[in-house]
Backbone:
């Protein structure tokens, strides 16, 4: 029971039966995944304009919402101020709630309760799908990742649940003595901001490297790779890392394998490649190396055992920080259709201090 203060019979009837309360929508949202889902009921009403006796009403100061889990028994109340709609949140899924409202004037005199409305908070409909965005760090350097909207500060908070369709921007900030090298995995590449559209659980890796690091190795299993056509695990010996992959050009699509290099420092880098040996390896494998201002092209004999299982240097080339450059091998059928092309790893070694380059022409193959 609610006890209302009334100063006169006239004031007692001021708002009586003039508030009609409606539930206009039922909204559900994700809470912390370790607790029950919470629901919210949005209520609206038409502001009263006259007293029960027909006299004009000009001074409503605000409204209160009363609610509970039994009809006519309201265990909670909210002063919502002078508005005509309000969302009551933190309601438990599967529970039926009953709502009523009152109006009050500037002196605090409160009307009788409005009509009662009820609803059952259900999660079977309108439940916003949520997915977890996880950030990982590697590379030997130190730094933090933050998100907009907030939720991730990695740091120590490296995962957050977001509603499906949300757009989350991740920013990587290196600590003193480190450089942010690149994003790897998930929806992000390069070393700018990472923008993720939430439509599945996703893990994004931020690679920080020590500022003095001058060697970058990209393996065939790394995220900074792509391929066209069929590439399978090779049984070739002396692979870099876990394994190497192979392909052959005996289909309608010419297979290619590409590594992507995104330097954090501008300068001249020596470029190396590693492949494994098999007796079926091709003697004429095209290799294309993009650099700042051009492309260097080579034909490689992968059939020579002495060149397999080691780093083979292809020269030194300029690269600009922040750019992304490709190293690509193309599978060949030479000398027979059973010949195979190997893709394993590439390496870049900075061999001078950071330099900016100005090139007026582009040299292409």
Residues:
């Amino acid at each position: 029971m609610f006890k209302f203060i009334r100063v006169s019979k006239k004031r007692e009837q001021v708002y009586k039966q003039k508030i009609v309360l409606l539930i206009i929508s039922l909204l559900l949202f994700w809470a912390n995944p370790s607790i029950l889902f919470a629901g919210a009921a949005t209520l609206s009403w038409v502001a009263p304009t006259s007293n029960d006796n027909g006299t004009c009403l000009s001074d409503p100061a605000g409204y209160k919402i009363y609610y509970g889990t039994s009809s006519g028994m309201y265990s909670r109340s909210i002063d919502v101020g002078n508005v005509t709609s309000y969302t009551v949140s933190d309601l438990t899924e599967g529970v039926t709630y009953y709502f009523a409202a009152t109006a009050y004037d500037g002196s605090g005199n409160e009307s009788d309760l409005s009509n009662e409305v009820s609803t059952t908070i259900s999660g079977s409909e309108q439940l916003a799908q949520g997915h977890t965005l996880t950030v990982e760090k590697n590379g030997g350097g130190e730094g933090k990742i933050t998100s907009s909207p907030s939720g991730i500060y990695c740091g120590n908070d490296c995962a957050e649940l977001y509603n499906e369709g949300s757009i989350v921007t991740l920013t990587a900030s290196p600590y003193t003595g480190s450089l942010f090298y690149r994003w790897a995995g998930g929806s992000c590449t390069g070393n700018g901001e990472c923008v993720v559209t939430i439509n599945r659980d996703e893990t994004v890796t931020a690679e920080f490297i020590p500022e003095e690091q001058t060697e970058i190795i990209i393996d065939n299993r790394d995220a900074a790779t792509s391929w066209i056509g069929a590439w399978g695990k090779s049984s070739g010996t002396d692979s870099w890392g876990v394994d190497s992959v192979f392909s052959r050009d005996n289909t309608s699509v010419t297979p290619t394998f590409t590594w992507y290099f995104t330097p954090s420092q501008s300068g001249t880098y020596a470029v190396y490649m590693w492949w494994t040996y098999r007796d079926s390896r091709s003697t004429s494998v095209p290799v294309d190396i993009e650099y700042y201002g051009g492309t260097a092209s080579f034909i490689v004999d992968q059939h020579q055992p002495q060149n397999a299982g080691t780093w083979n240097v292809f020269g030194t080339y300029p690269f600009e920080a922040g750019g992304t450059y490709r190293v690509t091998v193309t599978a060949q059928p030479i000398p027979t259709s059973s010949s195979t092309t190997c893709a394993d790893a590439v390496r870049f070694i900075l061999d001078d201090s950071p330099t900016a380059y100005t090139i007026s022409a582009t040299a292409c193959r």
In short: Helices lie at 9-12. The first strand starts at residue 21 and ends at 29. The chain has three domains: 9-120, 130-213, 217-350. The chain has one helix and 27 strands.
